Amino acid sequence: MYQIKGKIDSTNAPAIEEEIMAQLPTEIDAAELEYISSAGLRVLMKLRKAVGEVTLHNVSIDVYEILDVTGFTSMLTVKKALREISVEGKTILGQGGNGTVYRLDDETIVKVYSAEHSLEVIDRERAYAKAAFVAGIPTAIAFDTVKVGDRYGVIYEAMNSDTLGHAIANEPERRDEYIMKYAQLAKQLHTTTIEDGSVASLKDLLMKRAEDPMLKEFCTQEEIDTLKAIVVAMKVYDTLVHGDLHPGNIMLDNGELMLIDMGELTRGVPIYDIASIYRDLLVGSKSSPETTANSIGMPPELCIEVGQKFLAMYSGITDPAQLEQYIKMVGLVFAFNVVLLIPDFPGAAQRGPAIIENLMRPVVTPNADTLKYLLSK
């Protein structure tokens, strides 16, 4: 990557221009660039005309302000240098597969992503969060992307309380109130339309998973055709599906719920979101109780209670027998999703056969028509 350093002004711009135009770089490291004048900006403009797209990396705040004021941030791809912070000694608010949320101070929290999350993935999540916020979803405002050791993090606005999971656990007298707000937030998501293209299509994502070559290592061709047929039957929605809507991913701020994890946001059928809540609260609390407790902020037995109450409040079903049937239907969608996620699981080669034997063959295949119906509503 081509590097520019120090100051670029009228005294050295001609020499730098000669060197840059000889190499015609499209990626420039500006970590050591201290200042750029109008003469230097003209060099960048000339380069852009010659090569088309130009990306500046690791731009300092001072240089970024110059580029922004002069309009260059709309002409070039400008990536600011990331501030480095420490979370040593900070309180953990939530912990899950995507990362850990810490309270930095009274005004900010930070979500530190797992090591496998690239900056590109994090930027996409921030874009999804912005799209949801613009659409009216109560989403915590992300201030900045930072480095935390060898990982990336995102700084979020002040939260005067804790996660919804901790609030439910610590305030039993308000438990039903919080669960009702939880159900209302889910309904708000599932009735909020969003501009086509601003977030991914769930149907497209699931078809891509169904076509993943790794599935052929575990499924017969007939089973793969069944998975694809279920996806084909899925209705195309323009409303939001969060994908990971458990109480550990929701902050409680002055009595209002706000989402902080939008990496799996899609446009799709609402029951798919309900299946993710079924997964986290009802299944995870039994299969991985310690991990679930750390992620959601509630003991496993409370997760089950909250999950059942949420499903009743969200569906509006009061008859126990009908509610049990509804939960079984949600469980079918959960099983279908687990099968499609096999290639994403750590140790997929070891876990895949068990998932096919325990979920695909006894659950998904016999209920393929029911799944088509549920996902086409």
Explained architecture:
The structure is a single chain. This protein has 377 residues and is α/β, with parallel strands linked by helices. The chain has helices spanning 13-23, 38-51, 61-69, 119-134, 164-170, 175-190, 202-210, 221-233, 271-287, 289-296, 300-315, 320-340, 348-364, 368-375, and strands at 2-8, 27-36, 55-59, 77-80, 83-84, 91-95, 99-103, 109-113, 142-148, 151-156, 200-201, 240-241, 250-253, 256-259, 266-267. It is built from 14 helices and 15 strands. A 6-stranded mixed beta sheet has the order 5-9-10-8-7-6. It has a 4-stranded parallel beta sheet with strand order 1-2-3-4. A hairpin with a 3-residue loop joins strand 6 and strand 7. Helix 12 (320-340) crosses helix 13. The protein is globular, with a radius of gyration of 24 Å. The mean pLDDT is 92.
